[in-house]
Amino acid sequence: MQIDLEAERKEILNRYRKLIKACKRRLERGDKDIIRKAFEVAVEAHKEMRRKSGEPYIYHPISVAQICAEEIGLGTTGIVCALLHDTVEDTDLTLDDIQGLFGEKVAQIIDGLTKISGVVDQSSSMQAENFRKVLLTMSEDIRVILIKIADRLHNMRTLEHMKRDKQIKIASETLFLYAPLAHRLGLNAIKTELENLGLKYTDSDSFNDIANRLKESEPERKRFIQKFIEPLKEILSEQGFKFKIFGRPKSIYSIYNKMRTKHVAYEEIYDLFAIRIVIDSAAENEKSDCWKVYSIITDFYHPSPDRLRDWISTPKSNGYESLHTTVMGPQGKWVEVQIRTTRMDDLAENGYAAHWKYKDSAAEKENQFENWINRVREMLENPDPNALEFMDDFKLNLFADEMFVFTPKGDMKTLPVGATALDFAFEIHTKVGEHCIGAKVNHKLVPLSHELASGDQVEILTSNKQSPKDDWLNFVITAKAKSKIKSSLKDQRKKIAEDGKEIMHRKFERHRLSFDNNTINEFCNFLKLPSSQELFYRASLGNVDIKEIKDFVKHRQDGHKQRKQDTKIEQLVTSARGKTDMLVIGDDMQKLDYSIAPCCNAIPGDDVFGFITINEGIKIHRVNCPNAIKLLSNYAYRVVKAKWTNDQLISFLAGLKITGTDEIGIVNNITKVISNENNVNMRSINFDTDDGLFEGTIMVFVHDTKHLNHLIENLKKVKGVAKVERIDQK
Ligand code: MN
Fold this sequence. Notes:
With 730 residues, this protein is an alpha+beta fold. The chain has 27 helices and 20 strands.
């Protein structure tokens, strides 16, 4: 292919000019020169490189800078760094060069970006341990993570040029980390785009299906919205408001997520859109104006009393401000209405980008980010030794929705939704938490495990005799409380374990086992205990059985056999990873030890991957398995690509859920359909009827998705059947 270099040079300059235009409003004297310099350095550094699409590589940093300027609202330093973000990583330029050319700050941010891509973008995987490093780096300067988000957004926008396995890995990571981060930083528009693109590449069938349905139902939705807002428009104008009112569709990803988590069909999702009213309001009238609008709307449509959300009086900690209510609209349909001012809307959609426009609240918001970053640091200082668990805690705590509770004196504390009285106690102070015996919530006595609600006033009751107990870990969800309880339990255990050591020593002697570290560790492994301390602890409580020791002695004698087994597994992993680049399910059946994971019951035709387990060979999962995102983003090195052979004659287990009305003979008719279907075998069938409704779960053996879909279509034709859906597991 002939490349027209002259045309490319022109295009590069065009894109550069577009970038300058995007940040023009904020450029001060000298800013343009330094951006120009960064641009020229980047062009020179990347000049021999091309992207997978064949385009000059420099298009990528320019696009990332464009996103930083336009969609995130970063200033000159951020844009300079975005232009240079891949130079140290991918070109001959060193960090020292950057420091010499652009100074300390820019070098520091580039260093952070290089470190992050070192851990995240490696072909192996982003493992939990690395995740912590990412967060540490990002907490040094928020711009590091903002530029990284822009980088990821551009890579997602151009993901079509990547290979399929790369697509799945990148898209999974995006859903796992980058979309929640964008959400946490108030970048709503970017979050939605990342999620939709993430879904498009991990589960394109669902993505397309929802997109098509949304499109099909659009005219009807438009008519309904029109009917809903027409009378409101009139009244709001009469009252002298300047406003915009419109229907806002839910994103494809959030519909998908709702179908998935609430187990509902597309047809059953009633809030496919929300009505948004954005009013022009002077800064000092914002709050009262929003409530005035609320009052007008609820005069006209009846509100659901338990669906009022006031994020104006207390904004979410990502800065989100809005007033939400759900009202009964025409045709007996519930409709969510969001009321906010132009400023609030701008901040909600563009997060950081909108800052420079609203100086006062920007300072406040900066503060909220600062608070969040502080919490990140706090968590990182007390990391859980179990990195995966740490990550779950982290996600739960920092990406979760929040609520506000009050101390007896009226101080407000922020906690994740689902937090308990005990979480609150640890939030106040470690000592308060450790000695907590109960609480009074709104003056009523409650146990430690009591789940708090937003607005509760909480008084913690303590006693000096109290100390943390094992089951406390089940009562708390905040990372802070968890890590404090764990470390306190550890101290307690350590003391108890010291007594147990002597007891174990005697038991070992009695069975002629030598009491050395090797044997002790072997015994721990045998009992699946994490450490010798745990063993001594149990011994001290009298929980180590004579039988366990006897079994261990026998096991050591059989040990030889066992070691052979272990080597076999190792060989399996090596052969699975080494010999074939692609696991062909069906073909390699005899050669490799693999099975279908029970969590998603993949069948031929499903998009699948193989996951190497320690004890059970290779498990085949569907790419859209509920566990897949976690597996793919944390253990990519254990993933084998997999596909089905075409001439598949083996049967696979799949589950179906059937719901409908309880017609006479319906069970008979359903089983008839199944037995008439060629080659389908039923493994189990289970029916429940309740007050005229019935629900059935059927497990069938089928060849592939085509086969299964055919069966589903026929089942839908049975009289009384309202819905047939595939389920992941029984
Ligand atoms: Mn990049």
